[in-house]
């Protein structure tokens, strides 16, 4: 799915305030702390709480393997002023059915700053520019209006609702489904989120 350009760990995307870069073993402690926060983990399908270190180690290995193969692109979010400091994760993964899916999380101390919309905009631009893909899917728990707002800010439109497995929560939970197609990406309804003032 992703081209050779993204399959090397020197690849990064720079935005006004962020670096999106490959995750590394040095990110382990930040992931344990930030993704392991109950307020973050509760919104994620595959992140248990408490979050064991071996789960993070396996995630890091899988992310790097998928990035190398080009079957997905998982990137750490880091402030431009401190590119070694992970504050969240964003990814696009292929699915057996339907378009590739965008997923993300941001550490609770960084909520409300517009950083996730900045990262989503940047990765969506990379997807449509580099892969020739025609559509991206995303979903947000119905109890997560902040994630819904990020998607709508970045041009995604609601495409229905469903119940999805959340194995780390031990249940199937209701989600809102979203879609962004190439035509909408090429003709956004407003100024891209990454160029707006903080």
From TrEMBL:
It comes from the Bacteria. InterPro entries: Acyl_CoA_acyltransferase (IPR016181), GNAT_dom (IPR000182), N-acetyltransferase (IPR051531). Signal peptide: none annotated. Pfam families: Acetyltransf_3. GO terms for molecular function: phosphinothricin N-acetyltransferase activity. Its EC number is 2.3.1.183. Residues 17-157 form the N-acetyltransferase domain. SUPFAM superfamilies: Acyl-CoA N-acyltransferases (Nat). Keywords: Acyltransferase, Transferase. The keyword Acyltransferase applies. PANTHER family: GNAT FAMILY, PUTATIVE (AFU_ORTHOLOGUE AFUA_3G00765)-RELATED-RELATED, N-ACETYLTRANSFERASE DOMAIN-CONTAINING PROTEIN. This is GCN5-related N-acetyltransferase.
């Amino acid at each position: 799915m992703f081209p050779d350009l993204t399959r090397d760990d020197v690849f990064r995307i720079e935005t006004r305030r962020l670096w999106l870069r490959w995750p590394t073993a040095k990110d382990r402690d930040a992931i344990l702390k930030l993704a392991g926060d109950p307020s973050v983990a509760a919104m994620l399908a595959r992140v248990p709480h408490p979050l064991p270190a071996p789960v993070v180690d396996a995630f890091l290995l899988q992310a790097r393997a998928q990035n190398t193969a080009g079957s997905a692109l998982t990137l750490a979010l880091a402030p431009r002023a401190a590119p070694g400091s992970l504050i969240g994760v964003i990814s696009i993964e292929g699915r057996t059915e339907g378009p590739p899916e965008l997923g993300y999380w941001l550490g609770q101390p960084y909520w409300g700053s517009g950083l996730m919309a900045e990262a989503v905009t940047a990765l969506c631009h990379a997807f449509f520019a580099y892969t020739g893909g025609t559509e991206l899917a995303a979903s947000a728990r119905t109890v997560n209006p902040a994630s819904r707002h990020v998607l709508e800010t970045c041009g995604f439109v609601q495409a229905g609702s469903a119940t999805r497995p959340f194995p780390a929560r031990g249940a199937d939970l209701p989600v809102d489904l979203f879609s962004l197609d190439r035509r909408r990406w090429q003709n956004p309804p407003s100024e891209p989120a990454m160029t707006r003032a903080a």
